[in-house]
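=== Per-residue structure ===
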Amino acid sequence: MKLQSIINLFNFKSKPYYERFDKFWVQKIVTNTYQDRFDFFEKICTDKNVLHFGCTDWPIFEPSYNLHIKLAKVAKSIHGFDIDQEGINNLKKYVNQDYFTDFNQLQNKKYDVCIVPETIEHVDNVRTFLEGLSTVNADVFYITAPNCFSKKHMNRNFYGKDLFVEVVHPDHNCWYSPFTLKNQIEKYSNLKVKNTFLLQDDTMVCCEAIKK
């Protein structure tokens, strides 16, 4: 592909966010970069009523690294949602606030911020999960996932003639990119993505979304 073709292809002002080039579809996602994941979440959750999905980190739990524990120190209130009851029982020792395991338990609850950090890649049915997320009453949603096109991930994953080496959590069901995360959120929920961020040396994608 010639240099001028590449420049024309990514002329955001004059073209739509996607384009057909030769036999391929080309997606364009504008991203903002924010280095520190913890700092990012602390800033958006400070003095807010927060709902945190995937809060337990169970069974790989380290109190000093647990996001829920860190955010409990700055949030006005923080409620947790996780399907792992054992993990919830453990986390209650550190943050004694409300926890939920079913979307129906969230009826009549209202939140300033709903965060879904590194959870969507674990769920067994993304569509069902996002449809459930659509029932949550929150002003803004932040949904993150590992970025498959991160330089770090691409450098440490490789394949040869008879071997594929992939450095990935054993419970992950899929990888995401800035486009595919946004695409699934808007396809299967009533959320509209406003902004897309790259966090932690671009290893994570974060979509900021509101109700349509």
In short: Residues 178-188 form the longest helix (11 residues).
